[in-house]
Write a structure and sequence with these properties.
Distance between the termini: 42 Å
Largest sheet: none
Shape: globular
Helix content: over 70%
Structural class: mainly alpha
Strand content: under 5%
């Protein structure tokens, strides 16, 4: 059995909270008090998830002996995307321009997809979980790329089908 350092435990707990609350946010009517509350929980969990990884040394795909690795790059991607999504919401509140609201919705949809992609990637590449050692390098990278491409494709489908069309001020992003 593995023992995980405290930073990794906090990272994993925050990521699970973000996955659960992200699902809640997408299922709620947009703009009401519950949406805003759960969205704040999601953003906080995402900031903890990405922020704490700054202090965790890379276990795979490390850049030399720096302690930083390939997955650390996504701290920048996730952080910038979240801040732009928050900025877009503030701009929408100030201007009521629907383009800013749409930008907010799309940024956070891809933020959630990125969270899922990072989780799958980390679980599949971490030597502690055995997958990387059970496959040949070509099998591993093909499954890694295919899985992440599938998540991105589903996200792009939902964004193009539900968020990039229609009035972004509607109460639900998706008609269920």
């Amino acid at each position: 059995m593995f023992t995980f350092p405290l930073l990794i435990q906090i990272h994993v707990i925050a990521a699970v909270v973000a996955i659960v609350t992200g699902t809640v946010v997408f299922s709620l009517p947009k703009g009401d008090r519950r949406h805003r509350f759960w969205a704040c929980v999601y953003v906080t969990a995402m900031m903890v998830t990405t922020g704490i990884v700054i202090f965790v040394p890379a276990t795979v795909l490390e850049f030399g002996d720096s302690g930083w690795g390939f997955f650390h790059l996504f701290i920048l991607v996730g952080g910038v995307s979240a801040f732009v999504g928050i900025f877009a919401l503030f701009k929408w509140r100030r201007t009521r321009d629907p383009a800013w609201l749409r930008n907010h919705q799309i940024r956070f949809a891809f933020s959630y997809a990125g969270l899922l992609m990072a989780g799958v990637s980390q679980l599949s590449t971490n030597p502690r979980f055995g997958l990387v050692n059970a496959l040949t390098p070509s099998q591993f990278w093909l499954s890694f790329i295919a899985t992440n491409f599938a998540i991105l494709t589903v996200a792009m489908f939902f964004v193009s089908r539900y968020l990039a069309k229609g009035d972004p001020r509607r109460r639900y992003a998706m008609k269920i």
